[in-house]
Amino acid sequence: MQSFVDVFNDLDTSQKVLYVVGGIVVSIVTVVGLRRLCRKKRKAKKDYPRDTVIHYQVGRGPYAPSMTPFAVKLETYLRMAKIPYQNDHGFQPSSKGKFTWIEYNGQAVADSTLCIEFLNKKLGVDLNKSLSPADRGIAQAMQAMAEEHLYWFLALFRCQYDNDKSFLLSAYKVGKFMFWMIRRNLKKQAWSQGLGRHTEEEATDMFKKDLQSLSDFIGTKKFLMGDEPCEADCAVFGQLSQFYWQFIGTGHDNILKDKYPNLAAYCERMKETFWPDWDQCITHGGTRKATK
Asked: Which DSSP letter does residue 199 get?
C-alpha cells in the first residue's frame, strides 16, 4: 500500500496544486462554519440570574461529569467554595478559543485557573487558608505537575495511542469529521508542548512516574495536603477523574485501581464529598466500575 507521500509525489503539478488548494478550502470552510455556529449560540444566550456563576462547558461525560479535566476541576471548585452556579452545556468557546470558562454578572473570564483566581478575589474565597506558606507552595507545585505534565499524557493516550476510538467518538457526540479535527488539534498541541514527540513507551514511563509521585505524596492522607481539601485538590481530582473513570480503550483502563489504589480511594473520597449527585451528572446512567 502506498503512503500518502508516495501518492502525492506521483501527482503532476496541476494535481498537486488542486490538492493543496482543496485542503485549504476545506480548512477555511470548517473554521468559518465553527465561528458562525458559535455566533449563533451567543445571539441565543439566555438571561441568567445575578450573582450566579455561569459555567460554560461541553456536554457531560459518560462516566465522569465531563470529558475534560478542567471542567471537572472548575465545577468541583464551585462546589467546594459553595458558590451558586449554573452549567451552560454546548460548544461555545471562550475568548481564548478554549473550554472551560465562566461568566459572572456579565463579565466573562477564560481559563479555569484564572476563573478561580477571579472568583477568589471577587467573592473573598480562600480554600487554602489553613495551609502554611510552604504548604501552599507544595500544593501549587503538585497542581502544576498534574495540569502541565500529567494532562498531556491523557491527551496523547486519547488522541494518538487510543486503540478504541469508538469510545471517544461516542463520548464527544460529534460527527466523524469534527472528531478528526479535535484529535488532530490535540496532536499538534502535544507535539508543540514537547511530550508528543516521544514514543508511546517513553511517554508511558513518564506517565507512570507522575502517578507514582502523586501516590507517594498523598500516601494515606485524606486529601492532597491533609485532612481538609484545598484548592489544588480540585485540579488534581479533575485530572485523576479521567484516568480513574474514563481511560477506556488505552490499554491502561484500570491503572489507578490496579497500581495506585490510594489514588483510586482519593478519587472516590472526592466524589463522595463534593459530588453526591454524581450519577445524575453523567450520561451513561451509572458509575463505571473498574474491572480486571
From this structure: -
Q: Where are the domains of the chain?
A: 4-43, 53-123, 133-281
Name the grid cell of 90.
Answer: 454546548
Phi, psi of 55 (to 5 degrees): -100, 110
Helix 151-159 × helix 176-193 angle, to 10°: 140
Architecture of domain 133-281: Up-down Bundle (1.20)
The DSSP symbol for 45 reads P
Other CB atoms within 10 A of residue 50 CB: 7
| CA 158/CA 247 separation, integer angstroms | 8
Q: Which CATH architecture has domain 53-123?
A: 3-Layer(aba) Sandwich (3.40)
SS3 content of the chain, % helix, strand, coil (to 5): 60, 5, 35
Residue given cell 492522607 in the structure block? 221
Pair 54, 94: CB distance under 8 Å: no
Q: Is the pTM of this model over 0.85?
A: no
* The predicted structure's pLDDT at residue 40: 45
pLDDT per position as a tens digit, 44-84 = 557 889 999 999 999 899 999 999 999 999 999 999 999 99
More confident: 14 or 168 = 168
